[in-house]
Design brief:
The chain is an alpha+beta fold. Among the domains are: 105 residues, Ribosomal protein L1/L10, rRNA-binding domain (Ribulose 1,5 Bisphosphate Carboxylase/Oxygenase); 83 residues, Rossmann fold, CATH 3.40.50.790. It has eight helices and eleven strands. The strands form four sheets. Strands 9-3-10-11 form a four-stranded antiparallel β-sheet. Strands 6-5-7 form a three-stranded parallel β-sheet, sandwiched between helices. A hairpin with a 4-residue loop joins strand 10 and strand 11. Helix 3 packs parallel to helix 6. It comes from Pocillopora damicornis. Keywords: Ribonucleoprotein, Ribosomal protein.
């Protein structure tokens, strides 16, 4: 359609645009002043949503064969760790670490599944590790805690400082039984550092508790049954490291519900920056 009057063109556009609505389109040519009216289904122009495809990554690397590392005798493993330590510059005495994998078990009618556990033990041959202790005590107990080597000793004001995040540089929290209920607001902050009577970190004999923690060595078993604990230093003799390792295994065996031979699944000895050597379980468990 062609119209000569531009004003009439606008009127026709206004009248004809109403029935067309969103399903139509109007275009006015600026030069020829021709009006083209056509209808188009805009729904067909909408971009269709592609179905979501869960892309799964496949690895093209396959293990053709696997050979377990050979088990080492304890004396040979210690000799290899000392030889490796000599090749390191600037490292004189490293901590010897023992990795133990225990059988957490499955819950059956005759056996309960072992939950992750942790504790504190005294080694027959301790080695010096500096640990900072936070102590909540009052009066004579506070003075005894300071003499025993408590790094932070205080009362209610110290509880508020810990809650505000002003005091954070400590490894363990200890307290007398008087402060055990007052520390409940700090349970989410302290977590595993929270003192308990079962672990001996909450006691009226606070000096003995501090001495035990300063000389003791904490251990922790995760959900996978892995325990990592130091058993000495490379400067120790083989017999001293063996005595400490045997004490660790005896302590861990108290948490098991099966015999020693079935409770320990794997033993690995290593140093801080040295290689790892699997050990024969039969050498340690009779």
């Amino acid at each position: 359609m062609q119209f000569g009057d531009h004003t009439a063109d606008k009127e026709i556009i206004r009248r004809m645009a109403a029935p067309v609505g969103v399903m139509g389109c109007l275009r006015l040519a600026s030069k020829s002043r021709q009006i083209f009216i056509f209808s188009r289904n805009f729904a067909s122009r909408r971009r269709r949503r592609e179905p979501k495809v869960n892309l799964k990554r496949y690895d093209n690397v396959y293990a053709i064969s696997y050979r377990e590392p050979p088990k080492q005798i304890f004396t040979e493993a210690m000799g290899a760790l000392r030889a490796y330590n000599i090749s390191l510059d600037g490292i004189t005495d490293q901590i010897v670490e023992l990795y133990v994998r225990v059988d957490m078990g499955e819950k059956t009618a005759s056996k309960q599944k072992i939950n992750p556990f942790h504790g504190l033990m005294l080694l027959p041959k301790p080695y010096g590790v500096e640990r900072k202790v936070l102590v909540f005590a009052r009066g004579e107990a506070a003075e005894a805690a300071r003499r025993a080597g408590g790094n932070f000793v205080g009362e209610e004001e110290l509880i508020q400082q810990v809650a505000d995040g002003e005091v954070t540089d400590f490894d363990q929290c200890l307290c007398t039984l008087e402060f055990l209920n007052k520390m409940k607001p700090l349970q989410k902050i302290l977590r595993e550092k929270m003192p308990t009577t079962r672990r001996g970190t909450a006691s009226d004999n606070i000096a003995a508790a501090i001495d035990a923690y300063k000389k003791g060595h904490p251990y922790r078993c995760d959900r996978e049954g892995i325990v990592n604990i130091g058993v000495g230093k490379l400067s120790f003799t083989d017999s001293e490291v063996r005595v400490n390792a045997s004490a660790v295994l005896s302590t861990l065996a108290t948490h098991g519900t099966v015999t020693k031979g079935k409770f320990f699944r794997e033993l690995v000895i290593s140093s801080e920056r040295g290689p790892s050597y699997p050990l024969e379980i039969a050498e340690w468990v009779s």
